[in-house]
Design goal:
binds zinc ion, Zincin-like, alpha+beta, 3-stranded mixed beta sheet
């Protein structure tokens, strides 16, 4: 699924990179969408805490989650005024995308 999501990001002219997004403990910033730079960044600190087999799943979920925010930004998904609700919707979008057979 990750290659298809990376392809989808590229199709939307979005770069995807692993970067140090800082430490937000006790909460966790897994990834971010930057509409100005047209970029999705995944937090290297979160990846460093995972066992290797879990990394592709995290990357796929993060790219799908941030693609949702990109769609909110430019493709007509009306963003919820409530940030927590937006994050739940982005996570749900990611889970549903990852549930499709590769
Ligand atoms: Zn989000």
């Amino acid at each position: 699924m990750l290659p298809a999501l990376l392809w989808l990001a590229r199709l939307h002219d979005l770069s995807v990179a692993i970067a140090d997004l800082g430490d937000y403990s006790p909460s966790e910033l897994r990834s971010e969408y930057d509409p100005c730079d047209r970029a999705i960044r995944i937090n290297s600190r979160v990846i460093a805490k995972l066992d290797s087999p879990a990394v592709p799943g995290l990357l796929a979920h993060a790219v799908a989650h941030e693609l949702y925010h990109h769609l909110e930004h430019c493709a007509g998904i009306r963003p919820s005024a409530n940030r927590a609700n937006r994050e739940r919707l982005a996570d749900r979008f990611a889970r549903e995308m990852l549930a499709f057979p590769a």
